[in-house]
Amino acid sequence: MTRFTVNNQSVEYLLDPETPLLWALRDASNLTGTKYGCGTGHCGACTVDVDGRAVRSCRMTIAEAEGTYVTTIEGLSRERAHPLQLALLADNVVQCGFCIPGIVMAAQALLRRNADPDEDAIRAAITNLCRCGIYPRLVEAIGRAARAARGEDVIPAGARPDIDPADAARAIPALVPRGR
């Protein structure tokens, strides 16, 4: 039995201690925001926060996680109100979105260590791969999130700053099937 804390909840896994943390989170805890990308720790899609450090969960076993505090993207802010989440949306950083949870968790670990990172610090900390090539906008958004966390910037909430969330959820009549 392996015990640690996930998103502020004490968890005991009845899995082989050599099970990668990624699979315990996704399969046993249904925390599917942590993505499987490469399985070798290179892409960063599986990044979670373990005791304040950005960790590639595909490379850490649950035995190695024993006694730690793990935060996944689901535990960062269920309301999606964390400055990083708001900045990435407001600055239109997200494209396909697959890499974003890992990037957010890596950036969150950076901002816990360094409340005012410069561009070089951000680029050094975010080694996650993104096939969409969001890096220039990503660096600016992380800087903006840092400023917001320090109270020096305000980031509007919502899907996009210029779209009311209620309007964003409306169905487009031409795309709604009729009679089914």
From TrEMBL:
CDD domains: fer2 (cd00207). Residues 1-76 form the 2Fe-2S ferredoxin-type domain. The keyword Iron applies. It comes from the Bacteria. InterPro entries: 2Fe-2S-bd, 2Fe-2S-bd_dom_sf, 2Fe-2S_ferredoxin-like_sf, 2Fe-2S_ferredoxin-type, 2Fe2S_fd_BS, Beta-grasp_dom_sf, Diverse_Oxidoreductases. Gene3D superfamilies: 3.10.20.30, [2Fe-2S]-binding domain. Keywords: 2Fe-2S, Iron, Iron-sulfur, Metal-binding, Oxidoreductase. This is (2Fe-2S)-binding protein.
